[in-house]
Amino acid sequence: MSIVVQSIRSALFAALCVAATSAQSQYAPTKPVRLVVPFAAGGTIDVMARAFGQKLTEIWKQQVLVDNRGGAGGTIGADLVAKSPPNGHTLLLHSVAQAISPGLYRKLPFDPVKDFAPVTQVTVSSFILVVNPQVPVASVTELIALARSQPGKLNFSSSGYGSSPHLAGELLKSLAAIDVVHVPYKGDAGQMPALFSYEVQFAFLPMLTALQHVRSGKLRALAVSTATRNAAVPELPTVKDGGLAKFEFSGWIGVFASGGTPQHIVRQLSVDFAKVLQMPDIAKNLRSAGYEVVGSSPEDFAARYKNDIAFYTDLIRTAKIPLVN
Q1: What is the pTM of this model?
Q2: What region does 177 belong to: left with phi over 0, alpha with psi -120 to 50, or beta?
């Protein structure tokens, strides 16, 4: 589903939520709520969780406690939520890594579909395809042509094995039928110096990270990864515009409850998160961090989640990426 269509559906859902609030019996947590972040404190999702927690505490009149449970690509925190009572008091705020894990890990301690109840997709984000300025290309078409003329000579970096930037590069490699080499690093701390020094030639970077270095002249932006152009950088074409009609890649952050949580609880949680996302300060901060606000219904997010699990599993298999034990 395109970002435009998804945004329209999300806006309609938010409007319906407001209209239905007075007609529906209200669910509210009866004790403090644990919002699990499956990454270390201080990261983007942790900061987001703490901002959400403050607003939801006001709405629910119950304290929201952010619980950082990092490790194993997010699966440790996810497992905690999967095994929690299905009562809406333990929630997971996770990235698209939740949909990548089923295809990347040989075995997970939970069922990625049955053990989770998707609540809402809170954001969607674009990646930007960038190159070192020494690479003699100014478009996706030229990058593909260069890669085809020098099989195995160009390297692309990522912030880690199995990360979204890695898989975006693998999707480009597959659809363009080019022979390029993936070089994983431990986060941006290792990746950025490699890009600047020409150790690697190109990468897909989160928008905020990319624009910072494009504006400084350290990198050159070629395209955005999403199906449509991004309002923050309307001058940049999409990778699809470069001749790859099937290329579409985006990241997201979403909220999950444990599997089996009653539907009326899931729906009310979704309504309340939608209220938070409509608050001007929250929306402004998310957009300034490079995210587009979504706030989808549980049904829309569940459909996206299942589709993404299938998409990433197929991509990992096609790219012959070894599974993680």
Answers
A1: 0.90
A2: left
